[in-house]
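Side project, low priority. Logging it here so it doesn't get lost.
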Amino acid sequence: MTERWTHHLTRTRRENYLPAMTTYLKESFARNGRTHARPGGAGPAANTPHGGSPHPAPRGAGTERTAARPAPGTRPGPPGPGALAAKVRTMAPSMTRSMQRVAETVAADPAGCAQLTVTGLAERTGTSEATVVRTSRMLGYPGYRDLRLALAGLAAQQESGAAPSVTADIAVDDPIADVVAKLAHDERQTLADTAAGLDTVQLEAAVTAMVGARRVDVYGVGASGLVGKDLAQKLLRIGQVAHAEADPHLAVTTAVQLGAGDVAIAITHSGGTVDVIEPLRAAFDQGATTIAITGRADAEIAQYADHVLTTSTARESELRPAAMSSRTSQLLVVDCLFIGVAQRTYESAAPALSASYEALAHRHSPRPR
C-alpha cells in the first residue's frame, strides 16, 4: 500500500478495514479523477485474467505446437474496480447458474457486497462459500478478499460521480428518439467493455505476427464475415496481402496452403462456429500463426489460436440480436489490429494508402456537366 493509505489507516485507528478502504478510495477519486494504476499493466486493457495463458492442446491436431505465451513479467494482474462489471458481462455465459448469481449480485450491488464476508455473500446468493471463491477466481481475483477489495473500489467510483450503469433494452413501442439514445448508450458500453477486457500483450503479439506476414487470411461467417472483409480491405489499402474468405469450403482450401510466415485470423463471437474453427485449425496444423477474435477466451476455437483477443459479451433484448453488439466489439478489435500494423509499417503504409486514395478519387468527385 502507499504511504497515504498507511497514514489513513493509522488516522482511523484501523477500527474497520473495509469502511476505511472505501473512504480512502473515495478521496483518491476526488484527488485524481480516476482509479489507481492496476497491477500488471499500464492501462485498463492490461487487466484480463486471460493474460496469454497457454491454451489446451488442440484435439487431433497432430502437433506439439502450443499457444504463444507473453514474456515473463508481462502477465496482466486481476481486473481493477472499473473493469469488474465488464468482466462479469463477458464471463457470465461460461459460468454455472450458481456462479452467475454470485457474479451478477456483486456487479449490481458492489457497495453492499463489499460489506459481506464470504459466508454472508453465499447466504445472500443462495450458493456455497466454495462457489463464491470459484466465482472470484473466474473473474480474475486470487480469492474472495481481493474481489471484496475491488468491490469497495467500484462502490467508491460510483459514489464519486461516475455515470451509473443503465439498461438499454429496446421495447417495441419505444419512440425513435429513445431507440437512438439506448443504442448509443449500449454501443458505448460495448466498446468500453471490450477495451477493458482486451489483452494488450496478446494484441501486441498479433500485430507483430501480421507485420511480418507473407499473407493474412481472415475467416468469418455472417456478421463476423463482414467484419473480416472490413479488416482485409483495410490491410490491402496499406499494401498488405490479405484475403477474407466467407465461403467455408474455400476458407479451408486456402488455409491448407498457408505455412510458417503466414497469419490466419478467425472471427467468431461464440467461439464454436464450425465453419470458422475448421479453417483456423487447418492453418494451425500447417504452421501459420493463428489469431482468434471471440467473445469467449475458453471457447473451442481458442485451442487452435496462438493469440486470443476477446470481445464484449453483452446482454441482448429481443429486438437487439447478438450480431449487433458483437459486431461493434469485433470492429474495435480489428481496428486496433489495423492501426497497430499501420504504425509499424508507416513508411510503406502511408504511400500505399495515398496511392489507393488517388486511384479512387475521381470516383468520388462530382461529374462535370
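Brief comment: The chain has two domains: 3-34+80-159, 197-360.
Revisit when time allows.
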